[in-house]
Every structure is written in structure tokens, then in C-alpha cells.
Design brief:
InterPro entries: HAD-like_sf, HAD-SF_hydro_IA, HAD_sf, PGP-like_dom2. It comes from Caballeronia sordidicola. It holds the Pfam family Hydrolase. The chain has helices at 5-20, 39-43, 67-73, 86-93, 98-108, 114-134, 142-154, 167-171, 203-210, 226-234, 248-254, 268-271, and strands at residues 53-56, 63-64, 139-140, 158-160, 188-189, 219-223, 238-242, 258-260. The protein is built from 12 helices and 8 strands. It has 2 domains: 5-62 and 139-271, HAD superfamily/HAD-like (Rossmann fold, 3-Layer(aba) Sandwich); 66-134, DNA polymerase, domain 1. The protein has 281 residues and is α/β, with parallel strands linked by helices. α3 (67-73) crosses α6 (114-134) and α5 (98-108) packs across α6.
Length: 281
């Protein structure tokens, strides 16, 4: 794009906020074209990608997990917990392996000797997370469950890919139906694998695609974090951004092909034809 896309997408969020106060008006995001026509430019392909498989991140996409809360509450003694905002979580921690996230957060907060303290912070966060999970502080996003079931109904192979080593345990706590948990929905699972590099490196998504009967170019990745979107695009995949926190602009900037606030906005009819697009209004 030759225009100032940063200012453009920031203005979209501001306009959406104004539209929220006027229910009769559609969200401005619906007026922004999907990037189907730009896929060849951003992915390096000469033709639009025909999709046939899906890869899901977990935290923030499928589950409302207590990760952010655990990171914040574990900060006591390292920095002021109130400084750990949702924006900081999304930009510095989300999608990264535990130790990398801890180091990134401490550095962003200006904590002295962050490298030496990151391991202790990461361990404290893990202990707090386990306490919150045991207390039942995990739930699934209803739109995500509907979307997963819709993809399954298409007969498409599905993978789940999270850097969190807690992802599988959390998904077993969510019922997909009377006989299956959310974890049972996936044909491939690379959650918590030891990786050489975390997101935005595409390693985790390429690993997931390698366990599906589909080439990376035919996969779309569902992500809520800019680092995850960047990782998907770096792997030659289409990226579907889920802006549950009013952060659509950052997902567009990261290179998302389409950004929605709910997965109910994705057209299953068009997806059945290999196209990622919004439901027509």
C-alpha cells in the first residue's frame, strides 16, 4: 500500500468506536475490503490462495484463558502489576514461548537485569496460571466453538498450534459435545512443542501444516496476536485476525488477510469454496 496504512487502520478503530454509539450504522471494518485481491502481493504468490485447511491458535482465539491475568499478577516484586496492560500483553507476550514472553515483558517495563530475572518471573507466572486453571478460570468463546464445528462440517483437516504448554490441558476442560472435548476436534496438535524460535518465526505453523494433508499455501491461520499473524504470513499462509480486544489496527498492520471481531463474521459458504471473506450483509 502506498498510503499511510498505519494512520488509516488506526482511524478505522476510532471510527468503529463512534459507530458503536450509533447502532444503525454498520461497523467501518465492514467497509474495508478483505485482502483477497492483495493476497498475491503479500504472500508472494501470483494467484489467490485456495484454502483447504485451518490452523488455530488457542489463547484469545479459542479460549478466554487466564494467561494475561497470570502474567500481571506474577509481576509483584519485579514491577508494578498495573503497568502490565492488555496492550502490553498483546504486543510483548502473546504467542511467545514462556521465557521469551517473560523477558520481553520485563524489558518493556524497564526492569533492571531483565535477562537474569526472566526465568524467575516465568516460573512464578506458571505457578499462578496453574492456580487459576484449577480454579476454573478457563472458558471457550462461543463463536470459536461454532466456527470449529463449521470447519469440521466442511471435512477440512484442522490443526491447533500454541506455544503454551498449558493449551492441551485447558482444551480438555471444554466440551465440544456430549462425547468430545475441544481437544478432540483437531487432526494435528503441535501445542507446547519445543521450538528453536517462537512467533513471529513461522516454525510452529509450518510444523502444524506439515502434519496436515495440505501445503502451507492452502492453510489459513486463526490468530489474535500480531506476532502470530506475522508468523502465519512468514510461512506463506493466509492469516485471519480475531480482534476481540479492539486491536484490529495492529492485526491489519501485521499483515492479516482478514480481521474480524467475531468468528461468526467469516463466511462459511465462501470458505467452502476456498475463499476467506466476510459474511455478506
Amino acid at each position: 500500500m502506498r498510503f499511510d496504512e498505519y494512520a488509516f487502520f488506526d482511524s478505522i478503530d476510532a471510527m468503529n468506536a463512534a459507530h458503536m454509539r450509533t447502532p444503525s450504522l454498520p461497523p467501518v471494518s465492514r467497509l474495508v475490503p478483505t485482502m483477497t485481491s492483495l493476497q498475491s502481493k503479500t504472500s508472494g504468490l501470483d494467484v489467490p490462495q485456495i484454502l483447504s485447511a485451518a490452523i488455530f491458535d488457542v489463547d484469545g482465539v479459542l479460549l478466554a484463558s487466564p494467561h494475561e491475568r497470570a502474567w500481571r499478577e506474577a509481576l509483584g516484586g519485579f514491577a508494578e502489576p498495573a503497568l502490565f496492560t492488555t496492550k502490553m500483553y498483546q504486543s510483548q507476550v502473546a504467542g511467545k514461548p514462556r521465557l521469551s514472553g517473560a523477558l520481553s515483558a520485563l524489558q518493556a517495563l524497564g526492569v533492571p537485569n531483565a535477562e537474569k530475572q526472566a526465568s524467575a518471573y516465568a516460573q512464578r507466572k506458571q505457578e499462578r496460571l496453574e492456580e487459576l486453571i484449577d480454579a476454573g478460570a478457563v472458558s471457550a468463546f462461543p463463536d470459536a466453538i461454532r466456527f470449529v464445528k463449521a470447519i469440521m462440517a466442511l471435512g477440512w483437516p484442522i490443526a491447533v498450534a500454541s506455544s503454551s504448554k498449558n493449551a492441551n490441558g485447558m482444551m480438555t476442560r471444554v466440551a465440544l459435545d456430549e462425547q468430545h472435548t475441544l481437544l478432540d476436534a483437531f487432526d494435528a496438535n503441535v501445542c507446547g512443542r519445543d521450538l528453536r524460535e517462537g512467533k513471529p518465526n513461522p516454525e510452529i505453523f509450518l510444523l502444524a501444516a506439515g502434519e496436515l494433508p495440505a501445503a502451507p499455501a492452502h492453510c489459513f491461520v486463526v490468530e489474535d496476536a500480531p506476532a502470530g499473524v506475522e508468523a502465519a504470513r512468514a510461512g506463506g499462509m493466509v492469516a485471519l485476525g480475531v480482534a476481540r480486544l479492539g486491536d484490529a489496527a495492529s492485526l491489519w498492520r501485521a499483515g492479516a488477510t482478514l480481521v474480524v471481531t467475531s468468528l461468526d463474521e467469516v463466511s462459511i459458504d465462501k470458505l467452502s469454496r476456498g475463499q476467506l471473506d466476510r459474511v455478506s450483509i
